[in-house]
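assembly run, all chains below
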Amino acid sequence: MKLTVVLLLSIAGTSILGTIVPQNRDPAAYLRAYGEFVYRLFDVLGIFDMYHSWWFQLLLLLLTVNIVVCSIDRISATWRIVFVKNPSFNLSRFRNLSQKETFAGDHPPRELGKIYQPIVSKYFGYTRVEQIDKGLCIFAEKWRWTRLGVYAVHLSVILLLFGGLMGLHFGFEGFVNIPEGEKVDSIRIRNTGEIHPLGFEIKCEDFNISFYNNGAPKEYRSRLTIIEKDTPVYQKDIIVNDPLRYKGVNFFQSSYGKMPSNSTFKNKTLATDPSGEITLNFTNRESGTSLRIKTVLGKPVDLPGGLGKFVVVEYIKGAEFRGQNIGEAYKGILTPADGNPLDVLLPLHFPNFDRMRKGALVISVADQETEAFNLGERSDQRYYTGLQVTKDPGVWLVYAGFIMMIIGCYITFFMSHQRVCIEIIKGKAKSRVIITGTANKNKMGMQQRVKKLSDKLANL
Amino acid sequence: MDLNVSIIRGLTMSSSNLLSITTFIYGAAAFFYIVHLIFKKPFVGRLGSWTALFGVTGNVAGIIMRWVESYRLGIGHAPLSNMYESLVFFSGTIIIIYLVVERQYKNMIMGAFAAPIAFLAMAYASMSPNINDRIQPLVPALKSNWLIAHVITCFLGYAAFAIAFGMSLMYLFRQKDVEGKSSLIARFPKSQVLDELNHQMVMFGFLFLSIGIITGSVWANSAWGSYWSWDPKETWSLITWFIYATLLHARMVRGWYGKRIAYLSIIGFMAVLFTYFGVNLLPGLHSYGSV
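ok done. output:
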């Protein structure tokens, strides 16, 4: 038990570290952020890919072993309790319970027993009548097997860990970019960069992107065809949340980009040349008037109307917004006359992008070819679709673990092994009925159930 | 003329207006419960219960209206997609669970510890300048039926943990004053009841947190192709899960009761709060929550 707590706490503690240090980034970025020494240290300890490091997996493995050992240790005792032919009832234990429900019955014990037994057995599966000194006693119980619920939960955790390990060692996680109209037969594994053959070909027939009025992306859609030995065998449109699955390999819509083509090349040379001139458009949101200002990287410009300053600080080839590639962009810093500086992203091909910021001025890069879908017509621009490709033979184990965990938790928390004892003692005119009950969990709830049963029997 | 305009305004009241009003109703409910706690007037306590019930009706109506409004805007989706909507849902769930508990245990004192949490969450949603209450279209990653299952189960769990937190605080106050010197605290439910309720709420919350993590995981597997990516929100929800798992084990195996369980429950709720709010400060996939 102590070991369990230590293990749980050390997994929790190290996991926190993993949420603070960003995982699987570019080494150069780490070097910049942490400096030489810390970088080396973290690298040796595997902190940059902590959740896959040997010591983290060792911790998980130890936890598994610990769960198994503890469960085996306890299950033999539980097993003996659960699998008995004739459950034993200890009358003196029931008599010692502090909470008792008592009432007087109108008939002698034997008759009352005959009336009560069928009612009690409706609520509790198992009933047994025993003769005692001055009358009789009805024992009843139900849900003995729920004592095993907790082991179902433990088993589910083990299934999860095994499923995870299986996926790690026999599955893969990779990505591939396919230009529209082209096909590939292999993908690249994430992190290592290895090339992994698929055993079949996959073709991207078409890629489409649509936007909401406010410029936020609405849908990314790729039409994919699986080709086996030059014959198409399966076709599907995939969107985020609706992948294509074929022979255990899953293809997920994950990003997209534009293929360089002749028509946009002229603009690109302007953009990719950091020393080149940049023309920015400043549009007043309310009046709609716009002003063109020329500048270069790093040279601040005064905003029209004395609203502050703006400076372009960086050119980004494949800028990201909400995890999606939005192509080339400038990054700038806007310093309002009366506020704190803020970062502004200016994608070259989305002049309305900056409207989302809801500032007084909408900034955009002038003289760029805008995206076709914004104008409602399609240019001959070619896209490539970015697919996440995974194979995980452990998933079914993990899902089995999930289902088992939910059922197991429910049984463990909300069902208990309940036992009641109804003692009927012979009196002068009337019989005395004493009802007591115990449960292995939620004892307060059991008292209420005993009371209900007593009310029911008393008012027959 | 003016009257007409105001009637029309009233009829076309937007969900955000209604939810702002709900905030004040929750504030009133919290106030009544606290007055009831201090001045022992059962009448005021009942007033608190009715106010809370009235508030939660507004809360639910607001959520439904928001759902309808989103369809009118042509971007229809369940109102569970950002920080504002989740806070609104969170407050409603706390009040509903609390009212059920109040009915079962027939004790209105606990309201002084539950209603303020709902009020604060709602007030934060309505007033904080960092939280946008506009209905926004769903980004592609959120377009899934799993969204509803995932968010609802997570927040049922969070709400139960919030109430467990309130019970733990009451327990600790009560333990500090064993002799019952303070007449205020003497009116709290018995320690045993508080302890048991804390445990019940934690079990309920744990089940729903588990289902929440699981639905999220299944969803992630259908959206990104991996059921677990150690993104900070996932990791922190796992840490929260570990803390409550420790609590449940300490009680079931070690027979811990009372104070120690109360402390663990409070630590667990801190982890819940961090998973909910703090994680947005860290880089990761769950960035929608911060908007």
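The radius of gyration of chain B is 20 Å.

Chain B touches chain A through 49 residues (CB under 8 Å).

not gonna interpret more than that til we talk
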